[in-house]
Amino acid sequence: AKLVGKWVPSTHTKGYVGKGYIHDSHGSLKQKGMSSVTFPARIPAPGKYEIQLSYTPGPNREKKTPVTIMHADGEQKVYVNQAKQPPILGAFVSLGTFRFEKGTRDVIQITTEDTTKVVIADSIRLLPENAVAVAVVGDEKKQELTKARKQMEKRVADLRKKVQDHKKATPPSSVKVMSVLEHKEAGDWRIHRRGEIRNLGPYVKRGFLAVAMPPDLSPKPKIPKGASGRLQLADWVASSRNPLTSRVYANRVWRHLFGRGIVASPDNFGEMGRRPTHPELLDHLAVSLIENGWSTKKLIRKVVLSNTYRMSSLGTPQAIEADPENELFARQNHRRLEVEAIRDAMLLASGRISFSKKGIDSDRSMFEKLDRNKIPEMFEVFDYPNPGMVSGNRNASSVPTQALFMMNSDFVLNEAKAATARILSEKGLDDEQRLSLAYRTCLGREPSPSEKALALSFLKNDTGKTDAQGAWEGILHGLFGCIDFRYLN
């Protein structure tokens, strides 16, 4: 800096930049007004810069220190209250933003004109417009700031850890479901003659389906006075004394595992429905379901471990002649998988299956979001029922559009590519071992000798080398499209 007049160096008040600061000498007022400090600066590039001035504050400092900024568009004088703590990093105050040309030139001049108290001159800095301020302080101040920063970083890390621990301990948010409100005056209601809401008949006491209760049931379920009956209805539906619910549910589980229920009309157990082919078996399964706490898992385990479930779908000639529709379950049914199982089997083979419930494209099909007005193409091709209706039995067609879908669907092609990448990622396997792995993954069995020979010949191109990616994608795509992938034997 260029000094005019008498200036005294000092380190008395901490917070200065560099090795110290200077202040004007205590002389007569006439001599005091003749001192100045001019700060030159090298401007690296033309443009606008923010000018910041540093000083050490104190009660004996001048409250109207004149500072002149010499910029490209002229000069501007401002007054700085040096008795006040600088707002920027505790050391700097902004004088404004001005335009400067490139080069070295005088930028700021501090004078003692018309001052009566101590004037401080420490340092200046120029920040390009929109630049981030960086502290320029002495060694002692740097140590203080470094220590404070480390303490703050440790505190921030501790707070972040507490936040993460709190999030882990947060209970899951409650799920909102549709429900009903109890009426303040619950009770019996009157008959609406011919369905007219204003043509009221006598009151009718609330009760339960008499046809679904054994005649000797005692005591019969009742609805207390003043209660809506919803709780009593739920208790009756799930009661071990209710002969209907457990049988309907057990029959649906059997139908899911065999393709046909013991009662062939799972949605109708009444007079218009079919009679059970094995009523004693249905009773046994219903009792077992109740005794095991209505556990679907235990009921399925009981059925799939039975000899009936593990029978071949071929059957003997005598059984086929006596029962061509297999209504008596003399053999296992040869049936096509439902669309959810076909889709999930491809996701499982590709390794992309997700067990979340977010509705993403790799989720299990039971969590697929369906628009009842437009169901996905795959669901439509493979006989998915109308989402707006209860359908205990599904149609199980076998039409050319299903094979065409498996050949041309982008979803099937993408899953075949993902399954190929999974097969090829297995290290130390030759083509025969990879082929065996592909068959076990997709079909649950080893390839037959003829299938193995055909597949290995397909893997070889004209040069006798294996086209790893393209050829294996064809193999996996073919396995997804074959009839064995869609049918249970």
Poorly predicted parts: 133-137
* Beta-strand content bin: 15-25%
Which outline best applies? elongated
Widest beta sheet: strand line-up: 1-4-9-6-7
Structural class computed from helices and strand pairing: alpha+beta
Return Rg in Å. Answer: 44 Å
Number of strands: 15
The number of helical elements comes to 15
Query: Major sheet: size, sense and barrel closure?
Result: 5 strands, antiparallel
> How much helix is in the residues?
25-40%
Reading the helices and strands in chain order gives EEEHEEEEEEEEHEEHHHHHEHHHHHHHHE
Tally of domains = 4
**Roughly what is the average pLDDT, rounded to an integer?**
87
Q: Cα distance, first to last residue?
A: 96 Å
Question: Could you provide a short overview of the structure?
Answer:
The protein is an alpha+beta fold. The chain has 4 domains: 2-141, Jelly Rolls; 189-237, no CATH class; 245-333, no CATH class; 334-489, no CATH class.
